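Example is below:
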Amino acid sequence: MNKSNILDRELNIYEFEKLILELESVLKKESFIQQDCYEEWKQKFTPIYGNKNVNIRLYTILAQIFYIAHLFIFHLLLKEHVKKKDTQSNLSLLKAIQEDILNEFSTDISFLNGYFLPLFEFIDQKNSAILNKLTDYTLNYLLEEKFKPEFLFDYLIQHSLKPLLRHASGEFYTPPFLVKKMVKESYDFGERVLDPSCGTGNFIIELIKSILSTTKSEEEKTRALSNIYGFDINPISILITMVNVIYLIGDRMSEFKSHFVITDSLFHEINLEKEKFDLIIGNPPWYTFRDINSITYQNKIKILAEALEIKPLPKNVLNIEISTLFFYKANVSFMKQNAKIFFVITKGVISGSHTSRFRHFKGFKDVKIWFFNKKIEHIFNIDFICLYAHKNNSLAVNPDYHIPSVYFGLKILLDKFEYFDDIELRTVKKEILIPYSIVNKNKKTYVNKLISLQNYKKLIRIESSEYKSLFHKGADLNPRNLIFITFKPKNESLAVINPDERVFKRAKVPWNKKIFQNSVIEKEYIFKVVKSTELVKFHIYDFYYVFLPISKENHDFSYSNLKNNARTFYEKIDEYYIKNKKITTKHKSFMENLDRWSKLINDRQFSKIKVVYNNSGSNLSSAVIQGDYLITGDLSFYATENLTEAFYLSAILNSNLINEQIKIKKSSRHIFKIPFENPIQKFDKANEFHQKLAQLGRDGEKVAINLITSLLSKNKIRISRNKVQKLLIQELKPILIQIDEYLKPQFLT
């Protein structure tokens, strides 16, 4: 696709949004939201998109997609059947199209009428031309595009619904080239197949094309087509799938038995008639437990995860991947013995600690994984894999953890390619993956990250250090827009505060708003905190100020004891927090949120000596913190009274040896407790090597401070942390080599 086409598409979407806004304005002006159909629509679609996203804008867009779905069939298949007159209303045209589809193709697509037909009747009564203008503009444009008609709705939804809205419901559509390869590798003609979250039907489309392209008899093709099933929780998705099927099959529809059902595949047991399925294929929703906006549904997910034996430890429950439930639920409810399953799924399921029970693959065998290079992964903007397996007759935990994997690249090197391009893949390499460790605890199996045999050979012995239980995550001081501040003294006891601009770079709605300006608080409620964003090896070179409604004397929170200005300010931010927090958030006040899991108000936080390291990132960095600093949740820390011990730990945590182990073991960017799966000895002041390591920790800090001081004096503008770290590692090279030399006898014997 050339550059001009890309620009044209962007221009079209801008025009589409402008016309949608005009239609939305008409509906608001005429109080359409008071209609019963709109309220019924909200109740149906809130569980799908979330309460905050279900509004008149979304309704207008979905109604437009509903209308275009009908006109799609009209333009491509029914022009000779439905007689559209200039005087014919939108409502009567829709009904005529539906009637003709039922007559010509034995298919009823009227199941959304109750939500959307009143809109078209309403528009007809108002004689508004905006709907026809919007429809003609959009449909004509899409039909003129270069991609095939069956992918029109894939394109339309991806460009009319904002990414954040689609991601709220886990909607990530699969590019046709990948669907084609997955179907080719897994489908055998005539098999009974289910896509349990079919979306716009990309897998259904490819399965149908595969069937129609064979040399089988017409009768055999019809039987094979009738074995294709699609489920989805979203009625719009089922409508689009059915419309695409009508377009592809056409006259065969009268002999075709349609199996496209609006249902939540995780909880609704469908009557599968005689048998289950030979193949489960698709791209299940990509969202996590924390993204769910219903407490009731969250509870159902927890119960299901436990029943499927993949529920993670309590600390990871918020990170339950919904796609993993689809994988195991398919095994229980939909798969025949020895049936196949093939999913596009997030890469984190093979590495994250939150999916360690998912990786026991109980009830599965012949597990295989497809990986892709960065150019291909970029299509989703999220790292992904394709996961294949057979159902195992045995319900035991899969004892074979040697999992074959294939890495794919582009067959023809391209600088850039688009979602709908028909690209070919080539095999770059094949590897066997194994867990770096397996833990059996309380009759549950936890399988750690899958790594290559080559990396497995690089591991030093896995042994839990005593320090594992002594390091703790810092306090999640969120939302930061409410408490991270800059200040100027007003007098001896008061300060004027404003939001710290630094915390808004990656802030998301509604936590990206500045809700106070030139507020006044008592100085005693201003605390210093450190974050990972300023951490480099051996040093944290900057800090932040925060407002916290706690006492510096006894580290306690007492609303009644707050001084006047602090109380007024806290009431303001507490009100904003309560108004904007998720329904599923259990904390009843902002302070409860700040001190969740007692990570803020504890003696550790107020220790004068702490060792910190980053909980996520590409590399491990550690530093010794001295003074009155609190630690945020993107860091882990250990409070000690022994400064020598602190520098001893800092030296080890900054070592290349530990860093290499982290890179092999960490899940995506998450580090957390992994450093202490290595045999780090408890500090012993009588141990000569421990003392030497502590001295190297001190030397490393001096090098870091001197380099950063020099950089700051030479540069008037702020230097990026990555640049500082890169320069610092070069300066630290001799020290890091010495640290590794002292650690090798301890780690490698």
